[in-house]
Amino acid sequence: MALFLLGRRGFQRVMTAIRPYCSSVASGKKPVNGVDLYYEQTGRGKHAVLLLPGALGSTKTDFGPQLKSLAKERFTVVGWDPRGYGQSRPPDRDFPPDFFERDAKDAVDLMKTLGFGKFSLLGWSDGGITALVAAARNPDLINKMVVWGANAFVSQQDLKLYNEVRDVSKWSARMRQPMEEVYGVQVFAKLWEAWVDGIAQFVHRPEGSICMELLPLISCPTLIIHGEKDPMVPILHPEYLLKHIKGSRLHLMPEGKHNLHLRHADEFNTLVEDFLEE
């Protein structure tokens, strides 16, 4: 099925993204809100940036090119594994109705624990949703925000796309491999099904809202990036964000798919660096 080759909300990860990036990456765990959260940190710049991964994502599967190549003299870059994902286990991941709110609080509190008073957010897919919530809830802490592959609501069309990729045994081996290396074959399959059920619950809310009501509360400069060939996130989603986040801007990448920050890492990194330094 072509969809498996084109990508999804966080599973279209390329193998280069999980190679070791460089020896200057520090890693560890910090106790935050009752769990031990894994993080990786690199760079020595004054501008702190937090990377927020996609569904089931982690620093190693989602942000190799960013941890390696974002300008280390200008930025301090932190990647993290949300609770129940990657190396932030235990606990086992679950998807209560407030899981995006929970991830947003964990993310912000992790950065506080690491000693950052103000920072920017780079959020991909589910991580983009988490970033939207975090920025709305913590306007005084967030410097700037970049999101891509994110949506503020779930439509019936979205739900159909998610259900089409529910059974990971139908994915290509290349698509499954990075996640199976992190979770194991059986755990990955069950966890992905749980994610599909978790995201589907928003369809039953008014207008399918995930965080629609929070968008007007976002006050930080916001860059929305969209890959015009993204098969999982229709253009209506970034257009909705653009309309409802005051002062935001939208940048389209004609050849970008869902994993545009991996496939077009140099272009993406330059775009982000320029925006963060404006």
Draw up the topology in text:
Blueprint: H1 2-6, E1 26-32, E2 35-42, E3 47-52, H2 59-62, H3 64-69, E4 75-81, H4 99-113, E5 119-124, H5 126-137, E6 142-148, H6 156-164, H7 173-183, H8 185-200, E7 222-227, H9 236-244, E8 249-253, H10 260-263, H11 265-276
Parallel strand pairs: 3-4, 3-5, 5-6, 6-7, 7-8
Antiparallel strand pairs: 1-2, 2-4
General description of the model:
The chain has 278 residues and is α/β, with parallel strands linked by helices. Helix content is 37%, strand content 19%. It is built from eleven helices and eight strands. The chain has helices spanning 2-6, 59-62, 64-69, 99-113, 126-137, 156-164, 173-183, 185-200, 236-244, 260-263, 265-276, and strands at 26-32, 35-42, 47-52, 75-81, 119-124, 142-148, 222-227, 249-253. It has an eight-stranded mixed sheet with strand order 1-2-4-3-5-6-7-8, sandwiched between helices. A hairpin with a 2-residue loop joins β1 (26-32) and β2 (35-42). α4 crosses α5 (126-137). The model is unreliable at 1-8 and 10-23 (pLDDT under 50).
Task: List the keywords.
278 residues, alpha/beta, eight-stranded mixed β-sheet, 11 helices, 8 strands, globular, disordered N terminus
- Regions with little confidence, pLDDT below 50 for 5+ residues: 1-8, 10-23
Number of helices: 11
Class by alpha and beta content: alpha/beta
Order of helices and strands: HEEEHHEHEHEHHHEHEHH
| Radius of gyration from the alpha-carbon trace, in angstroms | 17 Å
End-to-end CA span: 42 Å
Count of extended strands: 8
Largest sheet: 8 strands, mixed
Strand order of the largest sheet: 1-2-4-3-5-6-7-8
Helix content: 25-40%
What general outline do the C-alpha atoms trace?
globular
Beta content: 15-25%
Kindly state the mean pLDDT as a whole number?
92
